[in-house]
Amino acid sequence: MMEKNFLVSLIVIFVGTFSAWCAFQNYNWFMNSRKARFIVWVFGRKSARIFYIVLGVVLMLAGFSHLIYQTARLF
Question: I need a labelling partner for 4 at 20 to 30 A (CA). Which of 14, 20, 28, 65 fits?
């Protein structure tokens, strides 16, 4: 059970890092993807990049806090 929690934390950290990095680098394939296209249409490309960077940082923080919480529960 604990291995699943660690895996979930690592996946959330990876997804957050991926989202923030792709938005920061302004990759066309990321910003023009089917799921991101709506956010770009609503907010504009620059604001959508900021949104995805903030979303990525929030996901990374959530993953790290979950990882720290799971590690603290072991002690």
Answer: 20
